[in-house]
Write the structure tokens for this entry.
Amino acid sequence: MHFEGNVFRYGRDVDTDVIIPARYLNTSDPAELATHAMCDIDETFATRVRPGDIIVAEENFGCGSSREHAPVALKAAGVSCVIAKSFARIFYRNSINTGLAIMECPEAVDAIKAGDRVSVDTESGAITDETTGATFTAEPFPPFIAEIIEAGGLVARTKAQMAKGNAKGDAR
């Protein structure tokens, strides 16, 4: 997968309550969640983010509660990828399950600035700051994780596999 977008830059310990505040969890509608994404840390995020944009953050991105709403809100807002020094483990897994690409690359985080244009190739792990020309390498996704993210998440991948199996007469 290849992503390219403008960077929104955040610090360390951005928790799920900041990504999507609890007061907006009365809905599961991704489009509605997207309108409130990051509002407590960046009140203009939802109006400025464009499809394909990328979040770059310091350590422990997505810490806090285990709500799946956080990666859903970011993805629905248009974020194609989050690059951070590290992720909270539950956020990491929820991101994969919901089809949001995430990559750990401390060197890229140290160099990339807010507003830079960045491209990401998840197959090779290449991260390029198109603004400065600097390149970095993150661990590429294993094929099964890439397949989940490309499908749009675990549920979408499972449905596609079931439909493929049913089309072949497979009774799984």
Observations:
- The helical segments are 16-19, 30-34, 45-48, 69-77, 89-98, 106-111, 143-151, 154-167.
- The first strand starts at residue 2 and ends at 10.
- The chain is about 35% helix and 20% strand.
